[in-house]
């Protein structure tokens, strides 16, 4: 078989997948999980809806692929332990400011089981290992990571989804100054021993 002939369908397939995922991210962000439809996503990608099903199986599979997110968290070994809170807050602010997919995931996560499950997966796979490496007692890592998540996701909800004016208007450096000590406390302070 001619190599250029076999490469052409693969390139078309990759381009189709990219178009579907781009359209899906936009529709999930704009419409939320429940209202976004395979038909609308296919129409935006300029393909037949059957192609979406062929590549992703169903809406849940498409959502999972569209919001495959690598948080690219800082390596705890690369920063002093007492700066982990500031590093995390600054990192998340940078990601949220530039990433509509995260906002879409948050919107869907608070209204839909598939979205919530996706967010739990990201938490388990990416944030929890970082907490285990930083916190003084690895057994406390899940609770500490959950507390960190409550702060970061609460900020994201008020700043990027609900757009509370005071939260939306704060400069990222000011947010980091307020939030970093709390996140640092959650990660590294001694257990309160209640």
Explain this structure:
Helix content is 76%, strand content 0%. It is mainly alpha-helical and 194 residues long. Helix 5 packs across helix 10 and helix 6 (100-109) packs across helix 7.
* Shape estimate: elongated
- Determine the fraction of residues in helical runs and give it as a percent range: over 70%
Number of strands: 0
> What's the helix count?
10
How would a textbook summarize the main sheet? none
Low-pLDDT runs of 5+ residues are none
Organism: Streptomyces werraensis
DNA-binding region: 37-56
Protein name: TetR family transcriptional regulator
Pfam family, one: TetR_N
Entry keywords:
mainly alpha; 76% helix; TetR family transcriptional regulator; 194 residues; 10 helices; Homeodomain-like_sf
Topology:
Layout: H1 3-35, H2 38-45, H3 49-56, H4 59-66, H5 84-98, H6 100-109, H7 113-134, H8 141-161, H9 165-169, H10 172-188
Keywords: DNA-binding, Transcription, Transcription regulation
Pfam families: TetR_C_16, TetR_N
Protein name: TetR family transcriptional regulator
């Amino acid at each position: 078989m001619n190599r250029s002939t076999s490469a052409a369908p693969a390139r078309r397939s990759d381009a189709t997948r990219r178009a579907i995922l781009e359209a899906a991210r936009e529709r999930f962000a704009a419409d939320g999980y429940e209202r976004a439809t395979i038909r609308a996503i296919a129409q935006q990608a300029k393909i037949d809806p059957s192609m979406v099903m062929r590549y992703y199986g169903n809406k849940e599979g498409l959502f999972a692929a569209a919001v495959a997110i690598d948080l690219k968290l800082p390596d705890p070994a690369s920063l002093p332990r007492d700066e982990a809170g500031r590093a995390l807050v600054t990192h998340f602010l940078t990601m949220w400011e530039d990433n509509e997919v995260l906002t879409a995931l948050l919107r869907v996560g608070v209204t839909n089981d598939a979205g919530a499950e996706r967010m739990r997966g990201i938490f388990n796979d990416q944030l929890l290992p970082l907490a285990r490496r930083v916190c003084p007692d690895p057994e406390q890592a899940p609770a500490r990571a959950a507390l960190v998540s409550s702060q970061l996701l609460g900020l994201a909800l008020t700043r990027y989804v609900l757009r509370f004016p005071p939260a939306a208007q704060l400069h990222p450096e000011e947010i980091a100054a307020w939030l970093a000590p709390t996140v640092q406390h959650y990660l590294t302070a001694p257990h309160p021993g209640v």
